[in-house]
Amino acid sequence: MAEKQISCFAPAKINLTLDVLGKREDGYHALKSVMQAVDLRDTLTFTALDSPEIHIACSAAELNGPDNLVYRAADLLKRYTGFAGGARAEIEKHIPAQGGLGGGSSDGAITILALNRFWNLGLSYETMAHLAAQIGSDTPFFIYGPTAYIEGRGEFVTPLPPLAETWLVLIKPPVQVSTARVFQTLTPDNYTDGSVSDTVAAALRASGIAPLDLPYINALERGVMQQYPQVADTRRIALELGARHVRMSGSGPTLYTLCATRAEAETLCAALVDRAIMAWAVKTLAAEEYPLGETGIR
């Protein structure tokens, strides 16, 4: 193997929309969603090992071990392909865990992309997405990124024209949310018909622009705000500070608001931080930026 080390980044995502259509016979919920990658990112560095082991070293100590999706993705690749070598994975975490931003799923997907190149496995994107679906519902999206229409429980991914550069603010309420609990407590009153996701996807196909006044929706939002009042309180503060159309990403608790300009995003972010609320001013990723890193994987 010519290369001894490979570095890349794993981006966060937001759900521009999240429709929950109902519960499936297999216990999962049927979804429609438009997802978008943003430039809040973890950094992954893989170093070749002469032995077959996978070693994980994560800046968040609680994420070290075999449950880390980087480990699971690397182990799955080895078992699927029969690759005999190993790697040490160093993970510098910046995406908050259990935040609805897909940090773990992104780490797992980018591991598949990176090691496919690093180990010269020659897998197709379809095969990598199939493998990604085995380690998480959001993971296949990150194989394709940066903008896509999602169906099923997340395993069916249709790339969309990249969203024109848009600045936004990510807002993290001071609470962790259990995704399993959120879905377990869904009722038919929370279900939607998928039309909002279809509308936003059609707008992106037509222009690559997501107007600030489109009818964004997250079918999980109402239940989360009822179960976790901190999320509703944080949303209220953001609105008071001038945010518009504050939505929740995924199963939360992280909120986001699209902004007209970078200056607007940075001003709102600073105001939130002054109120002791975690916030990041970020922008959406373009196709040529996905993923970035020393490798230029795509």
Overview of the molecule:
By secondary structure, this protein is an alpha+beta fold. The protein has two domains: 5-160, 2-Layer Sandwich (Ribosomal Protein S5, domain 2); 167-283, GHMP kinase, C-terminal domain (Alpha-Beta Plaits). The protein contains nine helices and ten strands. It has helices at 69-81, 103-118, 125-133, 139-144, 179-184, 195-207, 221-227, 229-240, 262-274; strands at 5-23, 29-49, 54-58, 86-92, 147-152, 156-159, 167-172, 247-248, 255-259, 278-283. The strands form two sheets. Strands 1, 2, 3, 4, 5 and 6 form a six-stranded mixed beta sheet that branches. A four-stranded antiparallel beta sheet has the order 8-9-7-10, with helices on one face. It is globular and about 55 Å long.
